[in-house]
């Protein structure tokens, strides 16, 4: 795993020192080595920078930027099936100097062009420059596991694994995209392709960006879409047969993701997904696997006792870290450093702590990310289905009578409850919009009041219209929004802050195909999700060790904001710190006052505001 960055400057103002400055901002992503490619002509200057975390072929032969004939590459990721592709290329007459997957990617592009990406199983973001035809190509993996940002404005093109690299370029204009602020406050993250800055974008998962340097034409190609996994004619009728096929695919996917020349560990929470990863890898390993978990003193947030029981049963080399409140709080000031655009998921804190612990023992860890989205594991899905079931019983004429102008309601709590009823009625048959509403922390009216600018909502995958059944709509929308731009961002930044590579074995297209196409009754029953995964897990671990209510990877945020973080919250939301071009101070103060009086419904809103303010002070 690595960090990549680069520029094409048609104004010829940038030099190699600028490139080195960009690349050094990514040193945490690749502490093992750094190198550069820089060239200039009358038309433009071009530079690629690379920071290396050595995982496969740790020798200098695998260093980057890597060259082959007329192509140069900088690459971040892992191609798990690279050995099979390498054999295919060798049969076509290619020779290899290293045993790295980077060289396989580079020569695959030479052989098959941009269609080479369809052969790759893995997570990746890479850029290739063809020196002969003056074109560059940027690719991002199917599910968007690895990040890739780009900027294009006034003759300057930049790309990087993280936004902070752009800030080292003097001609980068860091103009706030004010509509991204609205999106962040609504959801706690900013969805692809948008970012917090103008003219700056995330390359979407499953996409390729082609840039012709001769005519300055920038074009995007979608090489993969999750819809390709949906087979209307493929029927999974027999449960036991489906279970066996899925188990076989899971074992294959998990084993692929253990390919490494350095030690590997597993994040183990004691939940279904991480327990399945640990149990299967333990059963297929000749040595003890290494598992890692953290615990908290607050019982409502502590899963470590469950993880320990699983670890004892599979006889793993278990590492448990009991986190004190002081240690968790000490990381809050670092969030803007790690997540260099506003990020509101408070579970980033335990994820950073877990990554820090794990990185002291191994360079690579596997997680259970993706299992909830693919196999219907979130409680929010069941709450939505329950709401829909009851709303369908309400006669249409009563639905209309329940909808009126909420502005006549002066009481804030009454207005919120009414808005909740109104929105559920409005979206009861639209899974995508109902999930969007359920994912929002501020109502439209609240955002109008708190923001001092006219809101123009940004387009996102919540605005797509899917011609699918209700349940598949929930899954696919969640994958393309919350999973990609919250869960995967959280894990990538937290782990790479400590130079730890994290792999997501559930995010394999073949596993996703099962999760999206199998009948609903194979996945859930009432409030019981991931049925088929649980039945696979029973083959490895006794049911009583994992059959328990789902817990989130959370922290006691409301308590901290009232007590230990109160001074920090008051400082960043003071009148002196609030930019009145962005926020209405009086409204923020009212939300904070209500929260201090005991209204817990406001704590997440205040956390989002705090996270924006801390980010704004550092990067805005």
Q: What would you note in describing this structure?
A:
This protein is α+β, with helices and mostly antiparallel strands. It has a 6-stranded antiparallel β-sheet with strand order 2-3-1-9-8-10, covered by helices on one side. A 6-stranded antiparallel β-sheet has the order 4-5-6-7-11-12, covered by helices on one side. Helix 2 crosses helix 3 and helix 6 packs parallel to helix 20. It is built from 24 helices and 17 strands. It folds into 3 domains: 223 residues, Glutamine Phosphoribosylpyrophosphate, subunit 1, domain 1, CATH 3.60.20; 203 residues, HUPs (Rossmann fold), CATH 3.40.50.620; 65 residues, no CATH class. Helices cover 40% and strands 16% of the residues.
**Are there runs of 5+ residues with pLDDT below 50, and where?**
none
How many DSSP H or I helices?
Answer: 24
Largest sheet: 6 strands, antiparallel
* CATH third-tier fold name of the largest domain: Glutamine Phosphoribosylpyrophosphate, subunit 1, domain 1
Order of strands, widest sheet: 2-3-1-9-8-10
């Amino acid at each position: 795993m690595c960090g990549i960055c680069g520029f094409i400057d048609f104004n010829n103002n940038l030099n190699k020192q600028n490139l080195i400055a960009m690349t050094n901002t990514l040193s945490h992503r690749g502490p093992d080595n750094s190198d550069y490619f820089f060239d200039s002509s009358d038309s433009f200057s071009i530079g690629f920078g690379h920071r290396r975390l050595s995982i496969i072929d740790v020798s200098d032969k695998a260093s980057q930027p890597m060259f082959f004939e007329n192509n140069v590459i900088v690459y971040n990721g892992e191609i798990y099936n690279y050995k099979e592709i390498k054999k295919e290329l060798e049969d076509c007459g290619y020779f290899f100097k290293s045993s790295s997957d980077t060289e396989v990617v580079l020569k695959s592009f030479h052989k098959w062009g941009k269609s080479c990406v369809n052969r790759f199983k893995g997570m990746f973001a890479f850029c290739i420059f063809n020196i002969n035809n003056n074109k560059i190509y940027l690719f991002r993996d199917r599910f968007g596991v690895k990040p890739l940002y780009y900027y294009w404005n006034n003759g300057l093109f930049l790309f990087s694994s993280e936004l902070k690299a752009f800030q080292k370029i003097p001609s980068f204009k860091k103009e706030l995209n004010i509509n991204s602020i609205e999106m962040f406050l609504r959801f706690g993250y900013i969805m692809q392709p948008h970012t917090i800055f103008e003219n700056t974008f995330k390359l979407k998962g499953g996409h390729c960006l082609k840039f012709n340097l001769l005519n300055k034409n920038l074009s995007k190609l979608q090489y993969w879409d999750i819809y390709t996994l949906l087979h209307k004619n493929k029927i999974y009728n027999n449960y036991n047969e489906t279970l066996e096929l899925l188990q076989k695919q899971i074992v294959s996917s998990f084993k692929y993701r253990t390919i490494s020349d350095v030690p590997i560990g597993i994040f183990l929470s004691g939940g279904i997904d991480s327990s399945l990863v640990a149990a299967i890898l333990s059963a297929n390993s000749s040595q003890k696997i290494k598992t890692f978990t953290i615990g908290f003193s607050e019982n409502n947030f502590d899963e470590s006792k469950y993880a320990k029981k699983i670890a004892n049963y599979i006889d793993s080399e278990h590492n448990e870290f009991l986190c004190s409140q002081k240690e968790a709080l000490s990381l809050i000031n670092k969030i803007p450093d790690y997540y260099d655009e506003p990020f509101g998921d408070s579970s980033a804190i335990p994820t950073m702590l877990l990554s820090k612990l794990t990185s002291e023992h191994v360079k690579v860890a596997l997680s259970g990310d993706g299992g909830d989205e693919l196999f219907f594991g979130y409680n929010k899905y069941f709450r939505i289905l329950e709401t829909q079931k009851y709303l369908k019983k309400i006669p249409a004429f009563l639905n209309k009578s329940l909808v009126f102008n909420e502005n006549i309601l002066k009481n804030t709590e009454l207005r919120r409850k009414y808005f909740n009823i109104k929105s559920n009625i409005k979206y009861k048959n639209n899974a995508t919009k109902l999930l969007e509403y359920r994912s929002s922390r501020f109502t439209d009216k609240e955002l109008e009041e708190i923001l001092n600018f006219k809101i123009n909502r940004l387009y996102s995958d919540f605005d797509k219209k899917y011609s699918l059944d209700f349940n598949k709509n929930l899954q696919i929308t969640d994958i393309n929004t919350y999973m990609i731009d919250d869960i995967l961002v959280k894990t990538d930044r937290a782990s790479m802050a400590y130079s730890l590579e994290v792999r997501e074995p559930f995010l394999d297209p073949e596993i996703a195909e099962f999760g999206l196409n199998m009948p609903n009754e194979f996945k859930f029953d009432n409030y019981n999700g991931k049925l088929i995964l649980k039945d696979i897990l029973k083959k490895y671990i006794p049911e009583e060790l994992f059959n328990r209510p789902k817990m989130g990877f959370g922290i006691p945020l409301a308590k901290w904001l009232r007590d230990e973080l109160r001074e920090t919250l008051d400082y960043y939301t003071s009148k002196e710190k609030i930019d009145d071009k962005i926020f209405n101070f009086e409204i923020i103060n009212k939300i904070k006052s209500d929260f201090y009086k005991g209204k817990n419904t406001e704590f997440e809103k205040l956390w989002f505001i705090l996270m924006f303010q801390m980010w704004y002070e550092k990067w805005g």
